[in-house]
Amino acid sequence: MSKMTVEVVTPERVVYSGQASMVIARGVQGDLGILPKHMPMVTPLKIAPVQIKVEGDQVVRMAVSGGFMEVRGDKVTILAETAEMPGDIDVERAKASKGRAEKRLSEKYPELDVQRAERSLQRALARIDVTK
Ligand code: ATP
């Protein structure tokens, strides 16, 4: 089966690099399943898990936030503010972050930056999700 090269990169490091038969990501306009020979494309991603189908139908799941995905030839590049593999995620930290965001959103005090709290909640949920 034909393969694609996938790289997930943050300002800090290359978080993932490898061959894949499919990449599933949540674009701003909906879920995207990228297969080899996909047409060239660039799209912003929602804060969500990204799934990379590798050798033998194994799936690598990653939490990605502030990301863009570029598809060009048989290369998929995800540039993101943050990206973590499940093994790099501190679940207790994500749960604490989720709790803070939920508390802020339920209190809704006037000076609350609602979008910021919602983004924080999405990051925490994506991190918890990929560790399951
Ligand atoms: P927190 O409130 O716990 O700091 P956050 O969503 O505000 O969470 P980010 O600003 O998205 O954190 O990330 C800052 C850095 O910390 C990034 O390098 C990110 O990969 C890392 N990071 C954030 N949360 C976790 C976590 N639960 N486990 C491991 N690394 C994390």
From TrEMBL:
It is found in: Cell membrane. Residues 4-83 form the ATP synthase F1 complex delta/epsilon subunit N-terminal domain. Belongs to the ATPase epsilon chain family. It comes from Brevibacillus invocatus. GO terms for molecular function: ATP binding; hydrolase activity; proton-transporting ATP synthase activity, rotational mechanism. Its main location: membrane. The gene is atpC. F-type ATPases have 2 components, CF(1) - the catalytic core - and CF(0) - the membrane proton channel. CF(1) has five subunits: alpha(3), beta(3), gamma(1), delta(1), epsilon(1). CF(0) has three main subunits: a, b and c. InterPro entries: ATP_F1_dsu/esu_C_sf (IPR036794), ATP_synth_F1_dsu/esu (IPR001469), ATP_synth_F1_dsu/esu_N (IPR020546), ATP_synth_F1_esu_C (IPR020547), ATPsynth_dsu/esu_N (IPR036771). This is ATP synthase epsilon chain. Keywords: ATP synthesis, Cell membrane, CF(1), Hydrogen ion transport, Hydrolase, Ion transport, Membrane, Transport. CDD domains: F1-ATPase_delta. It comes from the Bacteria. Produces ATP from ADP in the presence of a proton gradient across the membrane. The keyword Membrane applies.
